[in-house]
Amino acid sequence: ELQEAVEEVLPDLERDGIRVFYLSSASPTPGVEALLPAIEEAPDEPLPARHRAGVTADSKAMYIYTSGTTGLPKAAVITELKLMMVASLGRICGLRPDDVVYTTLPLYHSAGLLVGVGGGGVTIPVPCPPGATCVLRAKFSASQFWADCRRYNVSVIQYVGELMRYLCNTPKRADDQEHGVRMALGNGMRAEVWKEFLRRFGPVAVWEFYGATEGNAGFINYTG
């Protein structure tokens, strides 16, 4: 869906020596590579230490584009330290190595990428085995949400406020509380939606947090 935007700036990116990838099996754009074949061919062994030589807590890990408060979206710098701090949110809230985290949030935002995928990666300190399992869905579906949770043995779900309201607005079913979800992690849920969610779907521990990609502080409602 971003193909036209990519192609518009591709000459400038190529001139600066920047490689561009589509997360797909093939690329419709000359000069843009398809990433999935490379992922499938990559070995399972950890990367050699030389690839991480010189990386410090202040090194840039990634850029995440945020809407910001004024003007056009801006690239927020995510350092290695901030990545680890945000990813540790799941562990603070009680995420376990045997959890299965289900996220339908976009991975170009901090919540899905850093808290969801990243949180699953740091539930156990290195050099232990990898942490929790993360189940990704390409697009949120209110009607298939709980079926997915049952199918993949999901124990932790991610949300933004409206997502929970969409779930509460689906037709009631006899199996609404037949799932293994024990914890919900997210932000922006209204009080009336929170109460209705618990009443309908059972005693799920809700960890509401607030943070901004470009901010330097965050909050967690650890009391529930």
Automatic annotation (TrEMBL):
GO terms for biological process: bile acid metabolic process; long-chain fatty acid import into cell. Keywords: Ligase, Lipid metabolism. It comes from the Eukaryota. InterPro entries: AMP-binding_CS (IPR020845), AMP-dep_synth/lig_dom (IPR000873), ANL_N_sf (IPR042099). One of its GO terms (molecular function) is long-chain fatty acid-CoA ligase activity. Pfam families: AMP-binding. The keyword Nucleotide-binding does not apply. SUPFAM superfamilies: Acetyl-CoA synthetase-like (SSF56801). The keyword Ligase applies. It catalyses: a very long-chain fatty acid + ATP + CoA = a very long-chain fatty acyl-CoA + AMP + diphosphate; tetracosanoate + ATP + CoA = tetracosanoyl-CoA + AMP + diphosphate. This is Long-chain-fatty-acid--CoA ligase. It comes from Chaetorhynchus papuensis. The gene is Slc27a2_0.
